[in-house]
Design a protein that fits this description.
Length: 235
């Protein structure tokens, strides 16, 4: 067998620590991920925003939601930038447009396509940089960062999640109907959990937190004690 030459460059893999926060829509992942990133002064990945960009552009180009090749070709033409909490596509600020409930539903449908998920994998992993990363999504602990230091699965009852999403949308000036929103969230969760490619599910070693009756500070305290325990076993 031939051995590699001593000068063959190794691919750069960043081993910065990662904390993953997965769970269904409206569980409070975004709030907790942002608080934790600020507390630790780590980077933040909102993986849903990456999928939402693909969903929004699929909608705008009126592509069929199962036309994987057409969506793949479209994605290759997009210049997507994340900057100071905002998302830009070909220099247009689409931060608000991607939060629209119609976009949520389309995004969940195209997120089931395996080629789309593979195409977005490297973009998500590129967020992993020192001193560390908080990654928020559906498959952060199971697929994207299987070697994460700590994996959280955050959930809440469908009613609480619907109300939180309603409040969030109202604050952003996006109108929504609460009953319709709860139904839409339930349909989205079902699709996200039942798809064959990287379904929404807790990683085997995930810490399960039901935030229905908890304030963000209480969720954060639970995560911090889990983090101390994880760090203690690593040293
Ligand atoms: O987290 P969010 O609500 O912004 O995500 C929008 C949709 O994107 C969600 O319904 C499913 C998809 N998504 C995914 O499939 N995998 C992720 N890691 C994040 C989001």
């Amino acid at each position: 067998m031939e051995s590699a030459t001593p000068h063959t460059p190794k691919p750069q893999v960043d081993h910065a620590p990662v904390i993953t926060i997965d769970g269904p829509a409206g569980a409070g992942k975004g709030t907790i991920a942002a608080l934790l990133a600020t507390q630790l002064d780590w980077h933040l990945l909102d993986s849903g925003a990456i999928y939402r960009v693909a969903g929004l552009m699929t909608m705008r180009h009126a592509l069929a939601l199962d036309d994987e090749p057409a969506i793949m070709s479209l994605l290759k033409t997009l210049d997507v930038q994340f900057f100071q909490g905002k998302v830009f596509v070909n220099q247009e600020d689409i931060s608000l447009a991607i939060r629209d409930p119609a976009c949520s539903s389309v995004t969940s449908k195209i997120a089931a396509l395996p080629a789309i998920r593979s195409a977005l994998l490297a973009r998500q992993r590129a967020f992993r940089r020192a001193p560390g990363l908080i990654a928020d999504g559906r498959d952060m602990g199971t697929v994207v960062f299987p070697d994460a230091t700590l994996k959280i699965f955050l959930t809440a009852s469908p009613e609480v999640r619907g109300e939180r999403r309603y409040k969030q949308l109202s604050e952003q000036g996006i109108s929504a109907n609460l009953a319709h929103l709860i139904k839409e969230i339930a349909a989205r969760d079902k699709r996200d959990a039942e798809r064959a490619a990287a379904p929404l599910r807790p990683a085997d070693e995930a810490v399960y937190i039901d935030s229905s009756r908890l304030q963000p500070e209480q969720v954060l305290a639970t995560i911090n004690s889990q983090l101390s325990a994880a760090n203690a076993t690593r040293t």
